[in-house]
Amino acid sequence: MELQTATVLFFLLPFIIIFIFFFFFKPVDKPIIRRSKLAPGPWKLPLIGNMHQLVGAATHRALRDLARKHGPIMHLKLGEIPAIVISSPRLAKEVLKTHDLAFADRPQCLVSKIMFFNQADIAFSPYGDCWRQMRRICIVELLGPKSIRSFQFIREEEVWKLVESVQYSLGSAVNVTEKLLSTAISITFRTAFGKRFKGDRELMNLLKEAVSWVGAFDVSDLFPSLKLLHPLSRMKPKLEKMRHEMGRIIQELIVERRDSRASSNGREENGGSCEGNILDVLIRLQDSGSDLDLPITDDNIHGVILDVFLAGADTTAITIEWAISEMIRNPKVMERAVAELRLALKGKNRVHESDIKGLSYLKMVIKETLRLHPPAPLLLPRECREAREIDGFAVPIKTHLLINAWAIGTDPEYWQDPESFIPERFENSSFDFIGNEYEYIPFGAGRRACPGMSYGLANVELALAQLLHHFNWVLPYGMKPEDLDMTETSGAAAKRRNDLYLIPTQCND
Burial code of 467-491, b = ≥16 C-beta within 10 A, e = fewer? Predict the structure, then answer.
């Protein structure tokens, strides 16, 4: 979650008069909140609350450092917005299991209202009948086990194209970051629309920009009572332009697909069913509608497609990039992963998913990567819909809730040498990805856990296996492993601050 606090603080400086007015004439808290025992937290400034304490370091790290001083449940004010930050497995379980329903809502913000068509998607949709229906469709129809298996040939073809593109650059520095994102977008585009997209550069740039805004707060989000400031938002026109550009691409494909279905009477020209991708399924469900509690709108389709791209493409590329980065910094881990792969594959050229099912160390590498670099280190924010008490502290309705999955995955009380990359810690371990163990929740847990987890993991496993199997990787410019910059950005997805450049050489095994 990128708060963009420095920008907001700078923006507020000309409004010092409004600040003074707010400070002296702020509304009185409701009695129930005033009498409640709120969780402890760092000192707060009038108006901006704790935003100044989140400037600089990556947000999940800044919140972890504050939690070490103030406790695993911590109360913050983000402008006018009250927030609770959870930083321990014990309290994560209480929130995500015991009181999951009370915290199942999503807060409204400018990004989700504009980019996701007034929260008509799955990830940002408020809890209710529409969300339940769209999530059920996602799990059963769009990204269930059968659908993921049916997309196998797409993954294998696009990852092989990645291998071929790297082969053209043997011995030269390659922008691994860019190649991974391009491949992840290609896989997701074919999965979503059933065709290759020739304008993937345009889409890649749009997705990069969209990801940078996801989780960002506008002045209107942080200061809802200061209506005078809302028309001055600099985010709103940028978001509207981005939605228009991405919406145009998606709408053209929707129209094309509907025309194709109409001309073939719901059947492909080759006689196969016109349901080979996510868009086909959504249009089919929209057109039939008979088995649905609520109609599927075009906004729902746009929102779900955007969810698939942001959750399926960007986080996949980021996870593979972090895995390779960590193995470059830990050569013994790289050696063991490569040895396992090449022994199991025994000189095979084209690797299929069936070839890598039993690669236990590769899976441990991915688990360890997700522990140190969860796709969304703060997950997605929740909002309290029913007042609750957590660990003896009141959580009023409308309080935002942040689960620091990164802090939980690096808690020294539960993890030995927590910030070191040690895949062996998962050997003979019961930890999985589905949120049953609250010390390890890279995809969240409970009702709002990521429904596309299995889809993303399938993409990560195959691409990582192919890149390790076919190439040896070294740092350019004579750099040593310890010289590799591992600094993160501060955002909804904590990616590398700088693109990863490596030199691939041909494997001679």
Answer: bbbbbebebeeeeeeeebeeebbbb
CB 253 within 8 A of CB 193: yes
Give the residue among 457, 437, 289 at the shortest CA–CA distance from 367.
457
Residue-wise pLDDT tens digits, 241-274? 988 988 888 888 889 888 887 787 655 443 333 4
Helix-strand-coil percent breakdown of the chain, rounded to 5?
A: 55, 10, 40
Does residue 17 register a pLDDT over 60? no
How far is 448 from 380, CA to CA, in rounded Å?
9
Write out the two tokens for 50. Answer: 């704790």
pLDDT, residue 11, reads: 47
More confidently predicted of 269 and 331 = 331
Query: Is beta strand 174-175 parallel, antiparallel or unpaired with respect to 501-506?
Result: antiparallel
Q: Which of 375, 373, 458, 360 is nearest to 158 (CA)?
A: 458
**Cβ-based neighbour number of residue 31 at 10 Å:** 8
- Predicted TM-score (pTM) of the model is 0.90
**411 contacts 10 by C-beta, under 8 angstroms:** no
- Of 34-38, 63-67, 286-290, 425-429, where does mean pLDDT reach its minimum? 34-38
Rg (CA), the chain: 23
Three-class DSSP labels, 181-225: HHHHHHHHHHHHHCCCCCCHHHHHHHHHHHHHHCCCCCHHHHCCC
414 touches 438 (CB < 8 A): no
User: What phi-psi label fits residue 107: left (phi over 0), alpha (psi between -120 and 50 degrees) or beta?
Assistant: beta
> Which residues pair with residue 496 across a beta bridge?
488
* Percent of the chain residues topping a pLDDT of 70: 89
Bridge partners of residue 36, in order along the sequence: none
Asked whether the beta carbons of 152 and 356 are under 8 A apart, the reply is no
Residues 361 and 426: beta-carbon distance below 8 Å: no
| Structural contact between residues 404 and 423, judged by C-beta atoms closer than 8 angstroms | no
Work out the pLDDT band at 487, boundaries 50, 70, 90.
very high
390's tokens = 């957590």
The SS3 call for residue 223 is: coil
Instruction: Write out the two tokens for 104.
Output: 């199942």
Q: 293 Cβ partners below 8 Å, 6+ apart?
A: 129, 133
Structural domains present in the chain: 106-377+419-506 (1.10.630.10)
Q: Parallel, antiparallel, or unpaired: how do β-strands 400-403 and 81-86 relate?
A: parallel
pLDDT for res 491: 74
pLDDT digits (tens, 9 = 90+) for 190-240: 999 988 877 667 777 887 788 778 877 888 899 998 888 888 888 889 999
pLDDT in tens, 287-318: 886 678 899 999 999 999 999 988 888 899 99
Closest Cα partner for 307 from 133, 148, 116, 446? Answer: 116
